[in-house]
Amino acid sequence: MLKKSSGFIFAESLISLMIAVLITITLSYTVSAQFEMLHKYERKINAYRFIDNHIQSDKVPDKLTIKNYTYIFSKSDDLYQVRVNNEIYKIRY
Predict the structure, then answer these.
(1) How far, in Å, CA of 28 to CA of 24, rounded?
(2) Given CA atoms 62, 65, 69, 70 in this order, what sign does their dihedral have?
(3) Could you tell me the CA-to-CA distances from 80 to 5, 22, 36, 43, 47 in Å, in that order?
(4) Which 8-state DSSP code applies to residue 4?
(5) In this structure, are residues 88 and 71 in contact, taking their beta carbons and an 8 Å threshold?
(6) How many CB atoms lie within 10 A of CB 76?
(7) In three state form, how does the secondary structure of 55-88 look?
(8) Is pLDDT of 3 > 80?
(9) How far apart are CA 43 and CA 36, in angstroms?
(10) Where does the pLDDT of residue 10 fall: very low under 50, low under 70, confident under 90, or very high at 90 and above?
């Protein structure tokens, strides 16, 4: 007759649970990092679009809020610049 060892099954179950939790944590971390990168690209695209709108028309306001980010436009002698929170996007001409 075979003797069943319940301790081995318990240890195997714990290891499987720890591996599953580790995979879940790793996936959630990488997905949140990807979303942060997408938000960064979205702010950059909106900033350059805002600069382009200013080049095409003078009727665009200097301060604009899109998705809770405030875009502030400024122009100097040879520089168009948009500040979004702590980031600055600029174009020289």
Answers:
(1) 6
(2) positive
(3) 73, 47, 26, 16, 11
(4) P
(5) no
(6) 9
(7) HHCCCCCCEEEECCEEEEEEECCCEEEEEECCEE
(8) no
(9) 11
(10) confident
Nearest partner of 69 among 87, 51, 53, judged by Cα:
87
Which residues are CB-neighbours of 40 under 8 A, at least 6 positions away?
none
| Rounded Cα–Cα distance for residues 73 and 52 (Å) | 11
pLDDT at 58: 82
- Cβ atoms of 60 and 50 closer than 8 Å: yes
d(CA 39, CA 48): 14
Residue 85 and residue 93: Cα distance in Å, rounded? 24
pLDDT digit string, tens, across residues 52-91: 988 898 888 889 898 889 999 998 888 999 999 889 998 8
Q: Which helix (H) or strand (E) holds 90?
A: strand 87-92
Query: What pTM did the predictor assign?
Result: 0.71
